[in-house]
Design brief:
The chain is an all-alpha fold. It has six helices and no strands.
Length: about 190
């Protein structure tokens, strides 16, 4: 029981950190304004790790390698902890390092897909409830590339835009496929 509680807490904390690092990467990629409440919060929550990493690893153009590395390292720490605690039985059969790297990458992709779904849900709800909220502008900028692609094939009908639903369904399908490819990646 204590082992399960420990694993739950470690997974929650490290997944939350990885999600924030990935969100910081994406917000910088789309050049979201720093004054926006979402950007400001994410930067404040991740500065403890990103600032020291930036001294060691510079950005590559517009790609914030420090944020990506921090997200990857948080997942690597998570799966290393799971392996040490005996919660990844596959580790004993294959090359430990390669499996940990694979699980860490799959974990990052899964978190990215969950972020897509969360951003879409918040974007749609804010569009109904508070379309002029300061966060709405950033969410609109974040979702525009995905939704624009879907809108090419499924244009909005009158006031009904199904593109957020379609992108959410595609993200969920990708999560299901990933779970079947790497079932023990939690």
């Amino acid at each position: 029981m204590l082992n399960s509680i420990f694993i739950f807490l470690i997974k929650t904390i490290l997944d939350f950190l990885a999600a924030n690092f990935l969100l910081r990467f994406y917000l910088q990629r789309i050049q979201a304004p720093y004054q926006n409440p979402l950007s400001h919060s994410v930067i404040a929550m991740t500065n403890f790790a990103i600032k020291p990493l930036r001294r060691i690893i510079p950005s590559l153009g517009k790609i914030d390698t420090s944020s990506l590395l921090a997200a990857f390292l948080s997942q690597l720490i998570l799966y290393s902890t799971l392996a040490v605690s005996g919660n990844l039985p596959l580790i004993s059969t294959f090359s430990k390092g390669a499996i940990l790297l694979l699980f860490s990458l799959v974990g990052l992709v899964k978190i990215s897909l969950y972020l897509v779904m969360i951003v879409l849900i918040v974007y749609v709800i804010l569009g109904w409830v508070a379309p002029h909220n300061p966060i709405s502008e950033v969410l609109n900028t974040m979702t525009k590339p995905m939704l624009k692609t879907v809108r090419k094939y499924v244009p909005p009908v009158n006031f009904l835009d199904l593109s957020p639903l379609i992108v959410g369904i595609l993200a969920q399908i990708a999560l299901i496929v990933m779970h079947h490819l790497v079932p023990l990646s939690l």
